[in-house]
Amino acid sequence: MYERILIPTDGSKVAEAAVDHALDLAAQYEAEVHALYVVDIDSINLGLGTEQVDRLKQGRFDEMDEVKERSEKATGAVAERAAERGIDVVEHVSAGRPHKLIGDYAESNDIDLIVMGSHGRAGVKRALLGSVTERTLRSTHVPVLVVDYEEE
Ligand code: ATP
Ligand code: MN
Q1: What's the domain range around 32?
Q2: Residue 123 above 60 pLDDT?
Q3: How buried is 132 (Cβ within 10 angstroms: 0-12 exposed, 13-18 middle, 19+ buried)?
Q4: The domain that contains 114 carries what CATH number?
Q5: How many CB atoms lie within 10 A of CB 88?
Q6: pLDDT digits (tens, 9 = 90+) for 2-19
Q7: How far apart, in whole angstroms, are the C-alpha atoms of residue 132 and residue 119?
Q8: Span 22-32, pLDDT tens digits
Q9: Which residue puts its alpha carbon closest to atom 19 of ligand 1?
Q10: Stronger pLDDT, 81 or 123, i.e. the higher one
Q11: Residues enclosing ligand 1, CB less than 6 A?
């Protein structure tokens, strides 16, 4: 039923709770996992010059140490845990608007299920969903599973 499961991650704890859930499903269904980190261009735009924004849009993350580090950490955490469990994983990083790129990635890679956190770094205690999750739910036709994070 699930052959390819997408885990969009911002590297936060909440996303990690979703990772465990997604990996359980992947193990059960022998699915391949895709870990996607989107460099949110709008949110980091302010501190960047046009040259750097262009670089991001072209996907030249390797030239930007901080961005490279953050994205590798986010997708790498998923990859590590998947590997421990013998689950195949594909890591991907892109730059743009997160919900848009999550939806695009899901459609062009034949993703059967998107598993994501209810929130990101910003707000664990809020009753509302995070904006990336909310927008993804509203804009994609691919089924989305939202995993809540409970503080221990
Ligand atoms: P907001 O960003 O609206 O202030 P938030 O950070 O609490 O709120 P979201 O950004 O919606 O909440 O994060 C919810 C989930 O969406 C995360 O757990 C993660 O699965 C996914 N997500 C958020 N940002 C990204 C990103 N840049 N790349 C990939 N996935 C992301
Ligand atoms: Mn966020």
Answers
A1: 4-148
A2: no
A3: buried
A4: 3.40.50.620
A5: 13
A6: 999 999 999 988 788 899
A7: 8
A8: 999 999 999 99
A9: 9
A10: 81
A11: 8-10, 12, 14-15, 18, 36-38, 40, 98, 116-117, 119-123, 130-133
Token pair of 43 as six digits: 């949110």
Per-residue model confidence as pLDDT tens digits over 29-67: 999 999 999 999 888 766 788 888 899 889 898 888 989
Element spanning 29, H or E: helix 13-29
Give the chain's domain count.
1
Q: How many Å lie between the centroid of ligand 1 and the Cα of residue 131?
A: 7
Per DSSP bridges, beta strands 32-40 and 113-117 are unpaired
What CA–CA distance (Å, rounded) separates 91 from 78? 9
Tokens coding 140: 């994609």
Atom of ligand 1 nearest to the CA of 36: 29
Exposed e or buried b per residue across 46-65, where buried means at least 16 C-beta atoms within 10 angstroms of its C-beta? eeeeeebeebbeeeebeebe
- Side-chain half-sphere CA neighbours of 111 within 13 A: 28
pTM of the model: 0.94
